[in-house]
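User: My collaborator and I are trying to settle a disagreement about how two of our proteins should look. Neither of us wants to argue from intuition anymore, so we agreed to look at predicted structures for both before our next call. Could you fold the first one, then the second, and keep them clearly separated?

Assistant: That sounds like a sensible way to settle it. I'll keep them separate. The first protein:
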Amino acid sequence: MNRIHLALIAPLGLLLTPLACGEVEAPEELGYAYELVDAGQCLERVLERDADGRTRCRAVEVRPSRDVCDCDGRGRVRLDEREQRRVRDAVERDPTTRGRGLDCMCELRQFDGERLTACRTDERSPLEISGERIDGWCEVDRELARECNDLGRLRFEGDALLREEGRLFLGCLE
């Protein structure tokens, strides 16, 4: 595990002194905080984006498995055990999803590159690039989310569209 040791830098070149509070997890280890959101609806906040325009979030569909949890497809992938635990905790905290048998959890792939640009700016749906349907999600540009009063809206395309009985949990790095 990476650790960050905090230090105070005193003015005028005095000594570096370690804080008594000890070690803190590095930002990449803090993990994602998941919450239930309505797919396609306005978000309650603006999502942080990295230099490439991708959000610092994961979109996870949860639904009943009915003995088969299929996360195969171009727009989805199975979550690792650690993230499944985090999502399961969020499902159990939310009164609208608690106890509903939502045991299948698939991460929906966030677009990048040319596909991200198309998703964020092109109003057409289904979305295609060079005649090929694309599968994934993005937070659309403010111009496509005018009704959201400068807050974000998520867009899902192709195989990343929610399946029957699917609920969407969005997890962003804290």
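The second protein, kept apart from the first:
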Amino acid sequence: MAREVGQAGLLGVADHFDPARSPTQLEWLRATLRLMALEADSLRPGGETVITRLSDVLVVQALRAWLDGDPAAKSGWLGALQDPQIGRAVSLIHREPGRDWTVASLADQIAMSRSAFAARFTDLVGEPAMRYVTRWRGRTRGSSRLPLRGCVQGLRFGASSEHPRLPSHRSWR
């Protein structure tokens, strides 16, 4: 009985997907949800880990379905991820927000000219690259995304003629 209720509850999630759009995706979703329900009912060693990993996969699959089917997902940084070059630039910015990015350095990383990169980034993301970098840094400030060295460098903390007694960040290594 518990198994039936568990499967019915989980499988109800599949009702929100349009089978006409992607029957294969719907079947894959149902199979994954059945496996999760079986793991939950059997209480086998490692079952919680399996359920957690399958949940991660379901989130990725749901995002993919949304990206494929919702016109709103075609704009902004999330939509830009679908472009091979601009998507790579967005990923680089997200991965290393503390890096001293410039339009030239981003364009160089993805093998585009500066002008083509700047125009395409703005077109796909909806704002210029450097404004996006600045906004992303603001969102990640205080999170673990910026390594300590990047935070220290970002603050320009170091010896200077104005502050000769302050240690340089190199002495902290």
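Some points you might bring to the call about the second protein. DSSP finds nine helices and no strands in the chain. The longest helix spans residues 47-69.
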